[in-house]
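dumping this here before i forget
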Amino acid sequence: MNLLLEDHLIEIALKDKRLIRNQACWKCLSCSKVLCPAHGLPSIECWLIPKTHCADDAKDDFFQKISSCITCSYFKTQGELHPQGWNFFLSEQIHQYNVKALEHIYQKEESFVEILNRIPDGLFTTDFDWRITYINPAAEKITGFSAHDAVGMYCKDVFKNPICESDCALKHAIAEGRDIHNREYEITSIEGKKIPIICSTSPFRDAAGRVTGGLEIFKDISELKQLQEEVAKREKKYRRIFEGSHDMIYTTNQQGQILDINQAGVEMLNYPSKEEMLKTGSAQNLYRNTYDRDRFLAAINRRGQVKDYEVEFRKRDGAAMQALISSRRYQNPETGDVEFEGIIKDITHRKRTEEALKQRNRELSILNSIAVALNHNMALNLILEETLKNVLKILELNRGAIFLIDREREKTEVIAKFGFTVDGAEDTQTVFFKDPLLSKALVDDEMVLKPEPIFPTFKARFELKAQKFSPWLTCFLITFKGKGVGFLGLDIPSARKLSQYEFHLMGSLGNFLGGAIVNAQMRETIRRNQQELRRLTGKLFQSQEEERRRIARELHDESGQSLTAVKLALERLEQNVPAPEKGLRHEIGEIIMMVRRTSSEIRRLSYHLHPTLLSDLGLEPALDLYFKEIKNHTGHNIEFSMVGFDHRLDVDMETVFYRFSQEALTNALKHSGSDNFRLSIIKSYPKIIFRAADDGIGFDTQIIGTDKRNLGLLGMRERTSLLGGTFQLRSKPGEGTRIRIEIPFAESLGHG
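structure:
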């Protein structure tokens, strides 16, 4: 009591007692302890506030503090002023404190229960008989039992596990005097579902050490078990892939030590066993070139991984192996060391196949270039020059030449060359064989060769200029149907050796090029013959037209005049016949009529051979008159038009179109049985288009040339070809016939 501060012991006057009824202690007593928990509060019940500064030592416990408060003038005054007296006031304060203390305890308990309800792990408590006294929501969810049903049940009945009968964890914990942690069980939920759990058990003891109950905390580890099973499956799968792969799978560390390798890798490098392989030391020993390992490490350390990194390995027996590495860099989680794992593929066979394919592509590119040149109808020397350039490019050579054998002139000549330059001189190109007998056999004797993939090489050279020769060239024979048609010479340095494939390539090229050369020579011969045939055909048509003009002129001038003279003589004779001679006069009249008909037929024949109107007035008037006469004699419906002509064509061109028109109409009249015939000639620069059509019976165009009736169409086609035009014929049985001719022309050909 003597510890109470002095200001709290001051007697309060009676007149002031009524004033403190509703005043706080610190205000009534003018307390200067501003750090006191009650200072500044409006509450007058300062004795209920713990750790106030009323005394020298702050009391937290109410019953320790109340002994000091009884001597406090402020507290005594409050009790004296209470309507029911001091004793009732004191008991009321004690009761009020107990109520607040209980409320505080209940709040703590509710907070604790709330925490237990919120934890994700299952939890329940038991009494001394192992009956459940509390179960949280997580445990409800795991077991399937509600708290209402579970409380009061034995824990073994909730877990439904036989081990609870024979090996109870709580009993073990009590017997061993320690908690049991992370023990795995498999419980059965209320729905009958098996659930794996991991459980920790602790017994409750009172102050005397007696067991009063227990605590079980458990977790559903179904997902963990599934993950463990999945990991085990993946590990098994990885191991199966690891051991069953046909490619090498390996693990090494930064120093190059081989940590693991599969059986495929052991067999790939020809080692007898995995153990023997792991004893090789550094992986660098597997590289044929040791700097490849350094480059590999630099690349994978820089990027963290490499893909399809190509290197050359050395097998145990020293044989080379082309390999493709795909690897990644990682840190071992257990040791912290940097390690590498990856896959190595043996691509030796693939590389050989790729090389063979490249060589085959090179061969095909040469053959294709020859085929393209042939399809474009290039000249033979251009074909061979292009072929020679491709061969030199593929074989990586600088000089070469292609020679052709001319048996008619009994000599060999250079048809194409590349890489040989002689300034200021003309090539004489005289060819020399190192073996004179071979020259005689190839050029003179026409030696017959058996078919071979490739013939032996020989040496030849040619003269560049006087006393200046090419080097001796390695030559490969070019053959066709057992005869040499030429050879391909290459300047191969002495240090360069052709591979077996390159020899095969030259043999294939020689056989293929022989046919190409002969075909090109045959095409050239055919082209020259066709040109000569066209020239002769043109001459024939020209001679034919000239002969027609001559015959028409002679018929008109000589025969016509003679018949006119005969007619006049007969008319004079008729006038001199006596009247009584009526029979003679009648016969003379018949003869005169016959002469007139003959004269008319001769004029018609002369006009058909060469109409004078065509020469005098041009194509359109001549055809108009011609079609008019045909229409009058046959009753045929003929439509004719010429479009776009502002002046006449060349005389020869007009003659050609006149003959086309005659032939088209003649075919329609004689063979088609048509009633209608249409013909148009259109000037459409740079072409003149001739179109003729009838509605006759038509015919099969495949029989042209086999039927005499179609010889006129062949003549039209030939005339068109001579003039550089195109001829189109369309006809089917029962669908009539259509002819379209297009002939190029130049304006300079016309005349006014």
